[in-house]
Design goal:
By secondary structure, this protein is α+β, with helices and mostly antiparallel strands. It is built from 9 helices and 11 strands. Strand 5 and strand 6 form a beta hairpin.
Length: 446
């Protein structure tokens, strides 16, 4: 960090972190069991949401809880069950309502009007899930899924885990828009621990391999098509910060006039700062003392990773700190050497916590919190790897057509599932987006 950084906070006692529910079994162990676990988790995550809440769509970029529950069900019905000759859908009219962006499948309801769908009701959507799950269960029992369909089911499970995270971030934004700031759950645990000093881990110039093998993959080594193919890259000498940037350090950036200094911002970001009157992360209050969380409004933990930053904010902070954002090559090279461990949705906090809160490695010689807590913005644009090939058929629309105007994030968040992530995973959002659990880790050239 630059000399502008905050002094290191004093250590505070770590809380006993809550018992961890079992993670869904891996699809490589039992696809039917994985299917049941993922589907049950979606319903459990939606359980605190009322029927009225489940209809809310607070902005075009988000979707109602009810739509997430229905769309993920439609995915299995449309792309798995409907592959059987003579298949009769649960309700043919819903094909239009719950398609998302698969133009090759047919027309769909406008994204920005998903919050207008009062019918079917939440109860009907839950009945729809049960009906499709029963049909999937009978097909599993009868052994009707061949290898290509099993790969498609595994894709559908990872797709649903993405929507589980969106379900949480979307309802958080919707509840924050309510003047009463109601909590999604008022029983979420708190954590207290020191972040530890920010240090740097150097890496010499090297030719490294990143990415996953080409899709489709053998069972047990799933990856999305945009992670492939594995390829060699010349990585320059650099240093990576040992941990993400904390709330306290971001508070210093604000106090130093970071939101008022045009020299720190990309041009589009500076225009947005002035147009939208940004002065702090989206869920912080004006006093910079509390923030809105899925557990309601709570004091800002100075030691926890800062979250809900746009790419513009992350980039501006890095410039202010005399550093930069890492490339996705630098990030993946570091992550490939550590275990996928951290503060995920399984931990139950549903909010970023400091590394000392029992949510991952605190080994000073290794990067901390690469996985979980916050998605980390990189300086890499979302583009295709050399030799990239989309999945065949309609599923080719899943990732490839979005490779324009977005930035890569890495590592997962406190709302991600542990068994959904890996070092090669590439998330992507537009630069202004900040309703996700997105933060940053600093990098610099050697």
């Amino acid at each position: 960090m630059s000399s502008q950084s905050a002094p290191q906070p004093a250590t505070t006692p770590a809380s006993t972190h809550p018992s961890e529910p079992p993670a869904p079994p891996s699809a490589r162990q039992s696809l039917p069991a994985a299917y049941r676990a993922v589907r049950e988790r979606s319903v459990a995550l939606a359980a605190p949401v009322s029927a009225e809440d489940a209809m809310l769509q607070s902005m075009e970029e988000t979707s109602p809880t009810k739509w997430h529950l229905a769309h993920t069900t439609w995915f299995f019905e449309r792309f798995v069950l409907a592959e059987s000759a003579g298949y009769q859908p649960v309700n043919a009219d819903w094909d239009y309502l719950f398609n998302s962006y698969y133009q090759s499948v047919g027309p769909m309801h406008a994204r920005h009007r998903r919050g207008m769908l009062s019918r079917p009701s939440l109860a009907e959507v839950l009945d729809y899930r049960r009906a499709v799950d029963e049909r999937m269960g009978r097909a599993f029992d009868a052994g009707r899924f061949d290898a290509p369909l099993c790969q498609r089911i595994e894709l559908g499970l990872h797709h649903e885990q993405q929507h589980q995270e969106l379900l949480l971030t979307d309802i958080k934004h919707a509840l924050w828009c309510n003047p009463l700031k109601p909590a999604y759950r008022d029983d979420l645990p708190l954590a207290s621990a020191a972040a530890g000093p920010l240090d740097w881990l150097g890496q010499d110039e090297a030719i490294v391999e990143i990415g996953a093998a080409a899709w489709p993959l053998d069972s047990g080594c799933f990856a999305f098509d945009n992670e492939s193919p594995r390829h060699r890259v010349l990585m320059p000498a650099h240093a990576l910060a040992t941990r993400p940037v904390t709330n306290a350090e971001y508070h210093d950036f604000i106090d130093a006039g970071g939101y008022r200094d045009a020299s720190l911002w990309l041009s589009d970001g500076w225009a947005l700062v002035n147009q939208a009157a940004w002065r702090h992360p989206i869920y912080w209050d004006e006093a910079l003392a509390s923030e809105f969380t899925l557990g309601g409004t709570r004091p800002i933990d100075p030691h926890a990773p800062v979250s809900h930053l746009s790419y513009y904010e992350a980039d501006a902070f890095a410039r202010w700190a005399g550093a930069r954002l890492p490339t996705e090559v630098e990030w993946e090279n570091a992550a490939a050497a550590v275990a996928v461990d951290g503060n995920f949705v399984d931990r139950g906090y549903l909010h970023p916590v400091a590394a000392g809160s029992g949510a991952g490695s605190v080994n000073a010689s290794a990067p901390q919190q690469l996985f979980g807590d916050v998605w980390e913005w990189t300086s890499s644009a979302y583009t295709a790897y050399p030799g990239f090939r989309e999945m065949p058929g309609s599923l080719g629309e899943y990732n490839g057509k979005f490779m324009s105007g977005q930035q890569i994030l890495r590592g997962g968040s406190c709302a991600s599932s542990r068994d959904h992530l890996r070092a090669s995973y590439r998330n992507f959002f537009h630069a202004p987006d900040r309703w996700q659990f997105s933060g940053l880790r600093l990098a610099r050239y050697a």
